[in-house]
Design goal:
The structure holds two protein chains of two kinds.
Chain A: H1 2-15, H2 19-56, E1 62-65, H3 83-91, E2 98-109, E3 114-122, H4 124-127, E4 137-140, E5 150-154, H5 155-161, E6 168-174, E7 180-191, H6 196-201, E8 202-206, H7 207-214, E9 222-225, H8 234-243, E10 249-252, H9 253-256, H10 258-296, H11 298-306, H12 311-341, E11 348-349, H13 351-354, E12 365-366, H14 372-398, H15 402-407
Parallel strand pairs in A: 3-8, 5-7
Antiparallel strand pairs in A: 1-9, 1-10, 2-3, 2-6, 2-9, 4-7, 5-8, 6-7, 11-12
Helix pairs in contact in A: 1-12, 2-10, 2-12, 2-14, 10-14, 12-14
Chain B: E1 2-15, E2 18-31, E3 35-39, H1 46-53, E4 61-66, E5 69-70, H2 76-86, E6 87-90, H3 102-113, H4 117-130, H5 146-159, E7 164-168, H6 176-192, E8 196-200, H7 204-207, E9 212-217, E10 220-226
Parallel strand pairs in B: 3-8, 3-9, 6-7, 7-8
Antiparallel strand pairs in B: 1-2, 1-4, 4-5, 9-10
The chains are: A alpha+beta, B alpha/beta.
Bound molecules: adenosine-5'-triphosphate and magnesium ion.
Magnesium ion binds near residues 46, 47, 92 and 168 of chain B.
C-alpha cells in the first residue's frame, strides 16, 4: 500500500516534468474520448429515431395475436376472446396505452387502379401515442371514431390510385366463410409516413365498420401495447402474457420485427468497434510518449533499482503514470463530451444530409443521446486498452540495468 | 562473521578489442563493524569492486558474500531486496531522483521499505540537520550545489541504519571542513551502530579516518594496511 503511494507520487511528479508533452497527450486523449462519446451519442440518437419511428408504424412495444396469425394474417386467425373482454382485461391492470385492431389483407380499387394493401380497423382514440397516423395527416381528416364510415390512406397510394379526399373507393377482402366481403368507402384523409412503403400499403378504417363488413362480430386480429421504454419490455411482455393466459401469442417488438430488433445489437457492436478504432489512433501517441518518458529516465530508473526498488515496482510506476495520464484525459474528455451534447439535446436539424437516408427510416431531426452505458464503455475502453498499451514500455523500463544508471557520467 | 567477503573475483571489460581487467583476482574479507578505505588511482577498480559488493554488477568469476549470504548468484529482484534491507549507497556519478526534494530523496529508501510517514519525517529531518542541510529539505536536486547534493546522498545512505555502507567518493565535491564533518559522522555511526563502511576515495584526509586502508592498482590489491586497532 505504501509502495503504491510512493509509486503514485513519483508517477504524478514525472508526468508533469515535461509539461508540453503531457498537455499534448492529455489533449489527444480528451479529443479521442470526446469523439467516442459524441459520435456514439449521435449514433444512439439516430437508432433511437429509427426504432421509435419504426414502432410508431404500428407494432407498439408488445403485440398479441392468434398463434397462427403471423404466418397467415387472414381473417380466420382472430384473437380468441372478444374485444369487450380484451378491454375488460386491460382495464383490470394499470397498462394505459393499448389498442386492439382488425388487420386483414385487402384489395383497394379506385375507378382507375387497384392495389393489394393491409387494411386496419382501428379505434382512433386508443391509437393516440401508439401509432403515428393521426399526427401525420397531409390532407383531410383522421378517423373520428371506431364506427367512422370513411377511410384514411397514404398520400402515395392516393397518387397511385389517382384518387383524392372526398372520392370513393372499394375495399375487398374475405369473411371467415371465404366469401367476398366488400364495401364502398369515401376517402376522408391522406397521411404521410416516414417510409414510402407505409404510405403505399396501409389503409385505415373504423374498427366497428370493418367488423361489420367482415362479419366477425366483436373479434379483433391484434392488440398493440405500449410501455415506457422500448429497451425494456420484458416485464410488460410477461404482464400481457398473463392477461391472455397462454392462449394467444404475445411477443415483444424485437421479435416481431427482427430487422428493428437486430438494429440495437448491431449498433452496440458498431459503437464498440468505433471506440476501439479511436483508441488505436490514440495508443500510438500514448505508447510513444511513454517510450520517450522511459528512455529519458534511464538513469533515475536505474538509480531507484540500485537503491533497492524491485523491477516490479518500476513497472508499476510507469503503468501508474500512464493511467494517471489517461485519467486526466478522461476527466476532460467526459466533461467536454457532456458540455457539447447537452445543448444539442433539443435536436440537430440534419434535413440537408438526411434526404438520401429516408430509405433507412431516418428522420430529419437528430436527438443525440448520451447514455451512461456508452460513457462507461468509452472510459473502460480507454483505461483497459491504455493499461495494456503501457505494459510494453513499462516492461522495458523494469529491465534496465541499475549499473548503467549510476556509472554513466 | 564477515560483513563482506570476496573470493577471487575477476571482472573484465572490453574496450574496442582491448581487454581491461577492472578486477583481477581480488579477494578480501571485511569484518563486521569494519571501516575500510579503498584507494586507487583513477581507473584502479574501486567503483567496480563496490558495485560487485553491492550486487549491482556480477563479477565474471569468483564469489561475493554479504552478511554471510552469497549474492553473486541471486536474481535481480532478490538483489534489490538485499540492497534495500542491508546496504546504504553513495554513488560516484548519479545519486538523486530529480523529481523528489532533498527530504523525499532521503526518505526514498525508507518509503520503499515501508516505514511510516511520521517516522520517516522525523529521521530524515534529523539526518539532514546532521549533514548541515537544514532549511534546504524542500529543494529539488537541480536547486542545490554539487556538495549539497552529495550530502543528501550521504544522508540517504545512512538514514535507515544499514548494516553496510558503500560510499564511492562521498567527499569529492566537499570542502575540507564539510568532509571532515561527514567523516566524523561516519566514524560515530561506525562506533555506535557497528555499521560497516567501505569508502572509495582519493582523498588522503578521508583515508586517515579508516581503520583499514586497501590500496588497489589496475584491478589488483597491492596493499592492505591496518591503521588503527579494530
Ligand atoms: N562499463 C565499462 N565498460 C568498459 N570499461 C569499464 C566499464 N566500467 C569500468 N571500466 C574500466 O574498468 C576500469 C576500472 O574502472 P573503475 O570505475 O572501477 O575505476 P575507479 O577506481 O572507480 O576509477 P575512478 O577513481 O576514476 O572512479 C577502468 O579502466 C575503466 O575504464
Ligand atoms: Mg570510480
Amino acid at each position: 500500500m505504501r509502495l503504491l503511494q510512493t509509486v503514485s507520487k513519483l508517477a504524478w511528479r514525472n508526468l508533469w516534468r515535461n509539461h508540453r508533452r503531457t498537455i499534448i497527450m492529455v489533449g489527444a486523449i480528451t479529443l479521442g474520448v470526446w469523439a467516442m462519446i459524441f459520435m456514439t451519442a449521435l449514433i444512439r440518437g439516430m437508432v433511437d429515431n429509427m426504432i421509435t419511428d419504426g414502432l410508431r408504424a404500428l407494432p407498439g412495444h408488445v403485440q398479441v395475436h392468434h398463434p397462427a396469425f403471423r404466418d397467415d394474417p387472414s381473417v380466420e386467425n382472430l384473437i380468441g376472446v372478444s374485444d369487450a373482454e380484451i378491454r375488460r382485461r386491460f382495464e383490470s391492470t394499470d397498462i394505459e396505452s393499448w389498442a386492439s385492431r382488425v388487420k386483414v389483407p385487402a384489395v383497394i380499387t379506385s375507378e382507375r387502379e387497384s392495389r393489394g394493401i393491409v387494411l386496419f380497423g382501428i379505434d382512433p382514440a386508443r391509437e393516440v401515442g401508439i401509432s403515428f397516423v393521426a399526427d401525420d395527416m397531409s390532407d383531410g381528416r383522421f378517423l373520428e371514431d371506431e364506427s367512422d364510415s370513411g377511410i384514411v390512406i397514404g398520400a402515395k397510394l392516393a397518387d397511385t390510385l389517382e384518387t383524392e379526399v372526398g372520392k370513393r373507393v372499394v375495399l375487398m377482402s374475405q369473411d371467415p366463410d371465404n366469401e367476398v366481403a366488400d364495401r364502398g368507402f369515401r376517402v376522408v384523409g391522406l397521411f404521410d409516413a416516414s417510409l414510402d412503403a407505409f404510405e403505399e400499403t396501409m389503409v385505415f378504417a373504423g374498427k366497428e365498420t370493418l367488423q361489420r363488413m367482415l362479419k366477425i362480430g366483436d373479434a379483433v386480429s391484434e392488440v398493440a401495447v405500449q410501455g415506457d421504454d422500448y429497451r425494456d419490455v420484458t416485464a410488460l411482455t410477461d404482464e400481457v402474457r398473463q392477461l391472455f393466459s397462454g392462449n394467444e401469442e404475445v411477443l415483444p417488438w424485437a421479435e416481431l420485427d427482427s430487422y428493428l430488433g437486430s438494429m440495437l445489437d448491431v449498433m452496440d457492436g458498431f459503437v464498440l468497434v468505433w471506440m476501439v478504432v479511436i483508441f488505436m489512433a490514440l495508443s500510438f501517441g500514448l505508447v510513444n510518449t511513454l517510450v520517450m518518458a522511459v528512455f529519458e529516465r534511464v538513469r533515475e530508473i536505474g538509480l531507484m533499482m540500485a537503491l533497492g526498488m524491485r523491477p516490479g515496482s518500476i513497472l508499476a510506476q510507469i503503468v501508474v503514470e500512464s493511467i494517471l495520464l489517461l485519467l486526466v484525459g478522461l476527466l476532460f474528455g467526459n466533461l467536454i463530451a457532456y458540455a457539447s451534447i447537452e445543448p444539442l439535446k433539443t435536436g440537430i436539424d440534419v434535413s440537408i444530409v438526411a434526404e438520401g437516408m429516408e430509405m433507412m427510416g431516418v428522420s430529419t431531426v437528430l436527438y443525440p443521446k448520451m447514455m451512461l452505458k456508452d460513457v462507461l464503455l468509452a472510459n473502460a475502453v480507454v483505461l483497459v486498452l491504455g493499461f495494456l498499451a503501457s505494459l510494453s514500455p513499462a516492461w522495458r523500463a523494469s529491465r534496465y540495468e541499475p549499473i548503467e544508471a549510476i556509472t554513466k557520467v | 562473521m564477515n560483513a563482506v567477503q570476496c573470493v577471487d573475483i575477476c571482472k573484465t571489460y572490453l574496450q574496442g578489442d582491448q581487454e581491461i581487467k577492472a578486477l583481477d583476482h581480488v579477494s578480501i574479507d571485511i569484518a563486521e563493524g569494519g571501516f575500510v578505505c579503498l584507494s586507487a588511482p583513477s581507473g584502479g577498480g574501486k567503483t567496480t569492486l563496490l558495485n560487485a559488493i553491492g550486487g549491482l554488477d556480477i563479477p565474471d568469476s569468483g564469489e561475493v558474500y554479504v552478511g554471510g549470504e552469497r549474492i553473486d548468484n541471486l536474481s535481480k529482484g532478490d538483489l534489490a531486496d538485499l540492497r534495500l534491507a542491508k546496504i546504504g549507497f553513495v554513488f560516484q556519478a548519479y545519486n538523486l531522483i530529480p523529481v523528489l526534494t532533498a527530504r523525499e530523496n532521503v526518505e526514498f529508501v525508507m518509503q520503499v521499505q515501508g516505514v511510516s510517514a511520521n517516522a520517516r519525517r522525523q529521521k530524515s529531518m534529523a539526518i539532514l540537520q546532521e549533514v548541515g542541510l537544514e532549511g534546504l529539505e524542500d529543494r529539488r536536486p537541480a536547486e542545490m550545489s554539487g556538495g549539497q547534493q552529495q550530502r543528501v546522498a550521504v544522508a540517504r545512505a545512512i538514514v535507515s541504519n544499514p548494516e553496510l555502507v558503500l560510499a564511492d567518493e562521498p567527499t569529492a565535491n566537499l570542502d575540507s571542513r564539510t568532509s571532515s564533518e561527514l567523516m566524523d559522522l561516519f566514524t560515530e555511526l561506525n562506533e555506535t551502530h557497528a555499521t560497516t563502511f567501505v569508502v572509495a576515495t582519493h582523498d588522503k584526509r578521508v583515508m586517515a579516518y579508516a581503520k583499514r586502508l586497501i590500496k588497489m592498482l589496475d584491478g589488483r590489491i597491492v596493499d592492505d594496511i591496518q591503521q588503527k586497532a579494530a
